[in-house]
Design a protein that fits this description.
Helix 9 runs parallel beside helix 11. The N terminus is likely disordered. The protein is an alpha/beta fold and about 400 residues long. The chain has a single domain, classed as NAD(P)-binding Rossmann-like Domain (Rossmann fold, 3-Layer(aba) Sandwich). It has 15 helices and 13 strands. The strands form 3 sheets. Strands 1, 2, 3, 4, 5, 6, 7 and 11 form an 8-stranded parallel β-sheet that branches. A 3-stranded mixed β-sheet has the order 8-10-12. Strands 9-13 form a two-stranded parallel ribbon. Bound molecules: nicotinamide-adenine-dinucleotide. Nicotinamide-adenine-dinucleotide binds next to helix 7 and strand 8. Catalyzes the NAD(+)-dependent oxidation of L-threonine to 2-amino-3-ketobutyrate, mediating L-threonine catabolism.
Length: about 400
């Protein structure tokens, strides 16, 4: 019974994340030429909502009347994180807040944040398709850097290409334009999905053939190129890393093709069996969440401009069969099944178009990228963390059964 309940909780969370986002359909398209008169018309065609809603009041800055001391004191950068309720955002927000103080990191999304997240620092509603709303946040909160995490991931994007074009491209264009106008540093991750079927598959370098054939990959390659253009043309400090599949135990994945590598752990512990949607020999690059956050922070905070805007970063590569064998070292009874090759899942074609491993030597050279977790450590940690979650859920269920209304009535 418990197994059914907890696994269906997990499934419904995953389903929720894969639903199309209603807010996107309310967006209207017009030029904001009147708003920024100093810019040329060609750079101002961004899709924004007609009405900008008000964010909550920004922080009050006090220097106790001592203006010269305040002017001399170095201050931390003020960072806005978009899409901060996704798989990667909450961990990054936590890390940045520990470095710069809660009040200096403004988290944002278009969904309601959990109570504990709200309590840990400022959180605002920010639809990345709404330029004026974003600009107001940047101005009111005096933002210096933006980590732009809002996106539709590969599998979700493939199911709704029009929405993916809006969120992934228009949202990014809005952020990039704001970075130009307000001199922001902009970190916006790319993906292994920006490569394509004609890209060399093994040890894929930073600079190579890039002809993605998924809508996710096309939007992300567009963003890479546009970011590089703004850096060259307008001096925007645009930084990006091509993330591989990211594994995390605490936050559910947002609908990507590498999600199997997270789901498999939940099923291994909760049911002992997993129906994999990729074939057993599909090799993809992967990374543990804490490495992703560390690499992102090191890249974001690197003090001087780097030789290139976009870098590969990676930690390890494995197939579903290899991951299964590693899990079975801890859970010998775990079983897995794969799709009938005659009827592959739609995500197989996406995975087949991506590299099997990345050459990330430039990131290692330029900003000291180095992973802590290989596959073996990652598997052990994922299993330990998910087992702890299941044990905690069991405790809640048994204490409800003992102390709940029915027990009390009895
Ligand atoms: N997770 C991975 O394995 C992975 C791999 C490669 C690249 N990336 C990239 O990292 C970034 C973060 O990924 P993630 O896994 O956290 O994604 P996610 O899907 O878990 O989260 C994305 C967030 O964006 C928000 N969002 C959607 N539409 C929005 C809108 N119109 N305005 C504002 N926010 C909106 C969603 O509510 C969600 O919280 C993305 O750019 C993604 O492409 C992730």
């Amino acid at each position: 019974m418990l197994r059914t309940t907890t696994s269906s909780m997990w499934a419904s969370t995953s389903r929720l994340l894969r639903q199309p986002l209603a807010s996107a359909t309310t967006t209207t398209r017009f030029s904001r030429t009147a708003a920024i008169s100093s810019l040329s018309a060609s750079t101002r065609l961004f899709s924004i909502s007609a009405a900008a809603s008000s964010p909550p009041p920004p922080p009050q800055y006090s220097n106790n009347g001592n203006n010269s001391a305040a002017a001399a004191a170095p201050r931390h950068p003020r960072v806005l994180v978009t899409g901060s309720l996704g798989q990667l955002g909450s961990g990054l927000v936590k890390e940045l807040r520990s470095m710069y103080g809660n009040e200096n990191v403004v988290a944002s999304d278009i969904r309601k944040a959990p109570e504990e997240f709200m309590a840990s620092g400022p959180f605002v509603y920010a639809d990345v398709m709404n330029y004026s709303m974003l600009e107001r946040i940047v101005v009111d909160w005096r933002i210096d850097w933006v980590v732009h995490y809002s996106a539709l991931l590969s599998a979700v994007a493939e199911k709704n290409p029009a929405l993916a074009l809006s969120v992934n491209m228009t949202g990014f264009q809005n952020m990039l334009e704001l970075a130009k106008v307000h001199r922001l540093r902009l970190y916006s991750p790319s993906t292994i999905g920006a490569f394509g079927p004609s890209t060399p598959k093994n040890n894929t370098p930073d600079l190579t053939i890039m002809r993605p054939n998924t809508i996710y990959g096309i939007t992300k390659l567009h963003n890479e190129l546009l970011g590089e253009y703004y850096r060259e043309k307008f001096g925007v400090d645009f930084r990006s890393a091509r993330y591989p599949g990211i594994l995390s135990a605490d936050t559910p994945p947002g609908g990507g093709t590498t999600d199997y590598a997270v789901d498999i752990f939940h099923h291994a512990i909760r049911t002992g069996h997993y129906d994999c949607f990729l074939s057993k020999d599909t090799r993809l690059p992967m990374m543990y969440l804490s490495d992703c956050i560390k690499g992102t922070v090191d890249h974001l905070t690197y003090p001087t401009p780097l030789p290139q805007s976009v870098y590969n970063i990676a930690a390890c590569s494995f197939t579903p069969a290899e991951l299964t064998a590693e899990i079975q070292k801890h859970l010998p009874h775990f079983t897995i099944s794969y799709p009938d090759p005659a009827h592959p899942d739609f995500r197989q074609a996406i995975a087949d178009s991506w590299p099997a491993s990345l050459d990330d030597s430039m990131a290692r050279r330029d900003f000291g990228w180095k992973e802590e977790f290989g596959m073996e450590r990652m598997v052990k940690l994922m299993l330990d963390k998910i087992q702890a979650q299941v044990d905690a859920e069991k405790k809640v269920v048994s204490s409800t059964a003992t102390n709940g209304p029915a027990a009390m009535a009895a």
